[in-house]
Design brief:
Largest sheet: 5 strands, antiparallel
Strand content: 5-15%
Shape: rod-shaped
Number of helices: 12
Length: 457
């Protein structure tokens, strides 16, 4: 592409140079010829006054010498009554050409060896026509033409070279963005997801670079979403695994019981490995147009599920704010996953017999879901909220709180960790109902006074 552009520019520039330089060179040549013959006409005109006064040879020779050169000028006076023809100077033109000029009565030119001659008729006092011959050598006719043509040729060559340089720069400006686009495509195809192309160059290539970068971002996002989905689905397996692990405690001793507990532990480790492998995935945005669900119904359902395990471990359970329907713009499966993640953490990271509670508070613009326990609490809430920063022990990947955080942020809300009234950890899920930024209000204010406890399920 680069060399093709250079060739086109060379061809176009050459045609333009030829189209202008050749006619201009011919004009310069014609101007030099006209200048030479104009000088010859002035020399011939200088002799005319003397011819109109006298035909004396000596006087005319002096006039010829003063007007030009006796070698370059000649005067031909015809014979008349009682006088002979007089020829002064060197004759170069043929006699017939002189006679023809005398007969026509106007100036003419004729070719002679070494150049040309100007034949200028002049009337004498006797009425006869004398002819003044002025020799114009070829060197005078072409004087300055060679230099002018050399200058034109140099200008033409400079224009061609300049067009090549400009075409090369334009070609580089066009080719380099295209090459970078090709290299970026190869890098992306090789799995280098960070490959991006500078958005520069001509408009078309710049738009192509923008489209490529957008495509690369979408590919990265899709891959991240796939990894995140795998991590989320794997994390959801933690709930039934927790139930299995708790149930294996009631199997007693024996080979079968030990094998069952070992299998459950191995399965938990495999799930943890899958979650840690996908921990670098970016947060996945919630699709628009989610139908939503009834938060009260979901909380009642999940608390019925977990209350059986809580009863086996001697945990006191409290539920509040679920008497009336509470609609939230969150998919039912996502809210179930978030609640299971938090309640599973309570069972995994607090001793048996530790009480916990789930409260739902509803206002005009937001819904708050509080999950609190009476356990030892979280030492570093910031690290716990960071994705993939769990304790590092088996059964802890840090992904559970991230699932909860993404659910809240998908509505414009947020998640906060703090100390609960039970003495342990409290996780506050702030779900916006209108998608606006969450209003920072204290969760121990009026909304907390709506809490009431119910008996364990």
């Amino acid at each position: 592409m680069r060399w093709a552009l250079v060739k086109v520019c060379v061809a176009v520039t050459t045609m333009v140079v030829v189209a202008f330089a050749v006619p201009l060179g011919l004009v310069i040549k014609e101007m030099a010829r006209d200048r030479a013959f104009s000088n010859a006409e002035r020399e011939a005109a200088a002799v005319a006054p003397a011819l109109s006064i006298t035909t004396d040879r000596d006087q005319l020779e002096r006039v010829v010498v003063s007007a030009g050169s006796d070698d370059g000028m000649a005067v031909h006076i015809p014979a008349s009554d009682g006088t002979k023809a007089v020829d002064i100077g060197r004759q170069r033109a043929a006699a017939k050409d002189i006679a023809a000029t005398r007969g026509l009565g106007r100036a003419s030119t004729t070719e002679v060896p070494g150049g040309s001659t100007l034949l200028q008729p002049t009337a004498l006092s006797s009425g006869e026509i004398a002819v003044v011959e002025v020799y114009v050598p070829e060197s005078e006719v072409s004087n300055g033409v060679g230099t002018a043509w050399a200058v034109l040729a140099a200008v033409g060559v400079a224009l061609v070279v300049g067009s090549v340089a400009v075409a090369d720069r334009l070609g580089v400006r066009m080719v380099q963005p295209a090459q970078r686009l090709v290299e970026g495509a190869h890098e992306l195809g090789e799995g280098k997801l960070g490959a991006r192309v500078p958005e520069e160059g001509p408009t078309e290539l710049r738009l192509a670079a923008v489209a490529f970068n957008s495509m690369a971002d979408q590919v990265v996002q899709l891959l991240a979403n796939e990894r995140e989905l795998a991590a989320d689905l794997s994390h959801r397996l933690r709930t039934p695994l927790t139930v299995l692990r708790l149930n294996t405690a009631s199997l007693g001793d024996g080979p079968a019981a030990e094998q069952t507990r070992a299998a459950v532990a191995q399965l938990e480790r495999e799930v943890d490995t899958i979650i840690r492998t996908a921990r670098e995935a970016k947060p996945q945005t919630v699709a628009l147009g989610v139908a939503g669900c009834d938060a009260s119904e979901v909380v009642r359902e999940r608390m019925d599920f977990w209350s059986a395990l809580a009863e086996d471990e001697g945990r006191e359970v409290r539920v509040a704010g679920v008497e009336r329907p509470v609609r939230i713009p969150v998919a039912r499966a996502d809210l179930v996953a978030a609640l299971d993640a938090l309640l599973g953490n309570v069972f995994r990271h607090t001793p048996e017999g530790t009480a916990f509670a789930v409260d739902v508070h509803n206002s005009d613009d937001a819904v708050i879901v509080l999950v609190s326990d009476a356990g030892p609490g979280i030492v570093d809430p910031d690290s716990a909220m960071a994705r993939g920063r769990g304790s590092g022990s088996d059964g802890s990947t840090g992904l559970g709180l991230d699932i909860v955080r993404r659910l809240a942020e998908s509505t414009g809300g947020d998640v906060r960790l703090g100390s609960s009234v039970l003495g342990g950890t409290e996780v506050r899920i702030w779900i916006q109902l209108d998608g606006r930024a969450p209003v920072r209000r204290g969760h121990r204010g009026t909304v907390r006074r709506r809490r009431r406890s119910v008996g364990a399920s």
